[in-house]
Each structure stands twice: as C-alpha cells, then as structure tokens.
Amino acid sequence: MPLERSEVEHIASLARIGLTEEEVEMFGEQLSNILEQFEVLNELDTSDVTPTGHASGLQSVMREDLAEDSLDHEDVLKNAPRREGEFFRVNAVLEE
Amino acid sequence: MPELNWLSIKEAHDQLASKQISSVELTQSCLDRIDAVEDQIQSFLAITPEIALAQAAVADRMLAAGEGGPLTGVPVQIKDVMCTEGVPTTCASRMLENFVPVYNATVVDKLINQGAVMLGKGNMDEFAMGSSCENSAFHPTRNPWDLDRVPGGSSGGAAASVASGETIFALGSDTGGSVRQPASLCGVVGLKPTYGMVSRYGLIAFASSLDQIGPVGRSVQDCALVLNAIAGHDPRDATSVAREPQDYTATLGQDIKGLRLGVPEEYFVDGMEPGTRKAIDEALAKLESLGATIKPVSLPTTRYALACYYIIAPSECSANLARYDGVKYGYSYQETNDMWEALEKTREYGFGPEATRRVMLGTYALSSGYYDAYYLKAQQARTLIRQDFDRVFQEVDALVTPTSPVTAFKIGEKTGDPVQMYLIDVCTLPVNIAGLPGLSVPCGFSDGLPVGMQLIGPHFSEDTLLRTAHAYEAATEWSSARPTL
Question: Is B155 among the residues known to form the active site?
C-alpha cells in the first residue's frame, strides 16, 4: 500500500528533516517500494521467537567505576558551530 | 625505486626490517602512485602527505632501533568513517564536511602505535550507506578495472586504492557487505571480522548491532596481519569481546584436506551473472581438488535477510543520526532563530538523499503503531536467520558463496532505484545479521571484471576462513592480477 503524502510528511517531522515538495513525492514512492519488499516477512511464523538485538550474546557489560580524565573543555567545543564562553550556543528553547 | 607501492605487507616488512628500503621511500612510492592515478580513481577524500612522511620518518627510527612489527612503516588508507585526530573526518557527508576529531579511533591508535603510515582518508558512501560509493557527497570513486564503473561500496575508496596500488592496505567498515562487496568488485581481499572482534570506538556509527571494521588488502596474508594488529577487547567499546590474542597468520599455509565446505543454494539467486556463477563453480572445483569436501546445504531463511536488514539497519541509523542537530559539531543552519526550523534545515541540507531515505525508513519502522510489524518482526527474523546458520555449521566448517551476484556495474546505472541497489548486497547482508565473519577473495573474471568468492564461518572462525582463502589463493593466480591504468 503506497504511503500517503501526509504519512511521508509525518515521518519527516518525526525525523526532523525538512523536505521539498519534490522530495515528499520521491520518498513517498521509493519508501512505498521498499516497504513492499518487507511484506515477505509476513510468511514467517514468529509467534514463539525471541527477538535478537545483536549477535555477540554479550549482556549488560559492567566495568569498574574508575575516575579518568575526559576531553578538556576546549577540545569538546572545538567543533561547535556556535559557542559562548564555555558553552554551546543554541537558539531559544522556551518561548516567551 | 621499482614499484614499491605494489609490495605485500610481508614483502614490505622484510625489506624494511633488513634496511633494503626505508619507510620514507615506500611511502613516497605510494604518494607518487597517488599523484599518477588519483585523478582517474579518486579513492581519497583527503591525502595527507606531510603526516605520512612524518610518520614514515618515525617508523624508520623505530626500525633502525630494531623495534616495531609487521606494520611498522607500511602505508595505509583509512576509510573516512574512522576518527583521526586533527585530520578531517567527513563520512563523505556535507554534515561533517568541517568536522575535525579531537581523538583517534582505537583502530587508528593501534595502527599508529605499531608504526603504520597514514596516506589519507578513503572515499565512501555517505555515512557508509550504499553499495557503489556514488552516495559520497564529494565525488564518486572509479573502479580501477574499468573507470566507467563503480568500485562497490560503501568502502569503495579502500578497495579502489588497494587495487590500483595507491596504498599497501586499507581499513574499511562493513555493516551489510561494505568491505567484502567492494573488495569483490575491485579484485582484492576484504575481511569482515566477527561482530565484537574489533573495537569500534571512534568509528562513526551507522547501525550499531551490525557495524564492524575490517581490512582490505591485496592478499589473504595481508588481511591476516592487519587483523592481528586491530583485533582485541577495548574498554571503550562495550560491545567488543574479550578473547585471548591469536596470531591469524599461524594457520596460513596449512592445507585444507578434509575441510567441510557448504554451498547454500539460496545464495545463487535469480539474476546472478553467468560469468560469476562460472567463476564460483570453478573455485569450488579448485577447493575440492585441494582436499576440501563440498556439500550442498540449505539456508531457507536467506530470502528474509534483505527485509530483515533493511528494517534493522535503517532503524538503528535513524537513532544514530539523530545526534546531528547542528549544535555540538557538524553543519549548522543559522539563518533563523527558530529552534525547530534550524534543526530541520540543518538535517535537510546536511544529509544526502540516501541518508535521508534511511533515516525516514527507520523512523517509520520505529514509529508508534508500526514497531511490532516492522522492527520487532525483523528482530525475530534475525533469530531465525542466526539459527539457520547455527544448524548448518553443525554440518560444515564454512560456507562458500558469491560475494556479489554481479560484477562492477556502470556509474549511474542503479542510482535511480534504491531497491535494485539494495539487492546487490543479498549475499553479504545475512553475515552481518548473524554477526559472523566473512571474507571475499578474488576468484576470477567475468568480461574482464573481477569476481569475488565469499567464505562465511561460525563466530570467531577467522583462522579457518583465512587458511581456506590462503590455500585457494596460493593455488590460483587471481590475486596477482593488476588493472592497467
């Protein structure tokens, strides 16, 4: 079932990605084609199957809680698009 | 100096250790080759000659003091998905065009500590998403065997640079075939180690349950030597597995008499090129003549792997790429004071089409109302795919398949249809889903283009895969073939 235009726009808003009109159309069609490929999974009876999150079998890896040096402030801010003193500068989050 | 850039790691090491050559000479030979052919190949996103020659001088001092190991003084290209301190690491994305890491990935530190020489950063599909290197935001890479064709992807730069003699070896990363498939299309050897074998600290994340770093080289032995250098537990990567260190070259040269090799019929898909099929059939006959027993096996869940992968990988990608918000690093849209508009424009302009497509797909699969139908279902399918492999590895020691159903295709040929592009990885995806090791070794040509044979084994069976591939390589001439440039 092809994705509706409104669904594509909804996904984009969840992903916080702006799309042009043409992209809404293109992704709508392409994502619908890809989703169609997923229907094959409905052949599988998975009612008693435990899901696998990853393949190594490791679970809840713990380590000693040791104090270590971490990156210094300047390094952390080195790639900041905007900074103010020792802080990342961002647009206002709260409305007036 | 005669073509030092074509030496194997072992040859380079022997000549370096015996002072026949210096690392500066070897490095300069690679830089000269880059000067000569890089216009055609374009396998690099950044070339770092000053760093390379400085590291080569350090390596020469190590060697003069009788220090160092097999990689000391040996040039490498690093895929641009691995962080390199002070050297831009872009992931072939506009989003990270100006990103300069303040630390090295663990694998990079390991190579540098052992005296390897970084020639530069390798081109790739943006954020390692793609099968052709055409999704690079900066430029495509060309296949050294035919410049009108793709080198494969996403580690296309790695495979093309090794195949064209620009470097001695390269590091790539493999989430669904991104080391093995380009290795196959460029006629070189590529190894995707077991999930957890190599630290991913400093590897920019795409799909965390699937990503793994692996070597690309011109021989099986080269890949074994690089694996020796990069494998091992890292406290900074909680998914890395603690194991006893192992010398992966130890079993090279041993025969494969009595080795049980399975051939899963499901990997010989419709649409497979006849030339590929022929090359694999001949390779199987060769393996049999070397003493292996060949047995048809079945992995019926193979038909679900593509769907399973293209739900899981984009879902994890959508979570991993959520970090690109234009605040801490990376591209940042600043023509507005509105927080949400800035975020949406940052991601709209920063991500290329494939990254956007996968973020959208993953967001959809994880969104309310669809999680069970897609993500949970795919994780259950993943269990069944794993169990299929577990069962078949009761009967055989390793599997033999084509690495890719097709040889290198024309640049632009498949960019319009994502599903066609995704289908190219049909033989490599299941390996990542199950976390297994996989290796691609050259096994012939089809219409002048390289064909790769994939070996797949149980978790941590790299020694078996390397030994098998090495025995095959020693009995054939394919790995010594070089493209004319």
Answer: no
